[in-house]
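ligand=uracil
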Amino acid sequence: MDNRVILTETEKSGLHVSSHPLILHKLSILRDINTEPKRFREVVEEITSLLCYEATSDLPVKTVQIQTPLVETDCQEIDARIGLVPILRSGMGMVGPMLKMIPSAQVWHIGLYRDKRTLQPVTYYNKLPDQATVDVCLVLDPMLATGGSAVATIDILKQWGTRHIKFLGLIAAPEGVKALRQAHPDVPVYVAALDSHLNDHAYIVPGLGDAGDRQYGTI
Ligand code: URA
């Protein structure tokens, strides 16, 4: 029997899968089993920069006066405090390129692991201050597999007081998109690819293997 997950139109509505040829080309390098960690990390960074561009196209801007060498003129600057929240450990590889694009972004870490007995995410690291210090949070995780960590992280960010949250990843499984869009229908998902399904070990198929191991050479 085919148990493949089918996404509803509502679940698909906030899902942005890039069709940019550069992203498609670079993704094939990541999927290749022969790509070494150094190259893998570089390509994760390159795709993240391109996804960042797509995912931030609706950030608010405000007009500021700038003096050019010739005249004073109206210019635009980003009008939001932005937080980056990498999901540990593989989300760390996406932080560098995001900071290059948004140097003023704050980086907040939330550590979660999945309890082997209950299969529920348990928080082991959270140093968020009492009040939210950002207006927009970009949650970073290369692989949206079951969606458990993403949903739990976004739960925490909403309790913290962040209202505008986006998820950025490299590859999503339909299972993860469904879980995330059902739990947080207001959170758009930006990915480079939507793959076929999860296997029995919750790996994305065809996927690229373990994104953490492939970045850090720990296979
Ligand atoms: N995490 C990974 O790194 N890879 C998968 O395929 C699923 C989860």
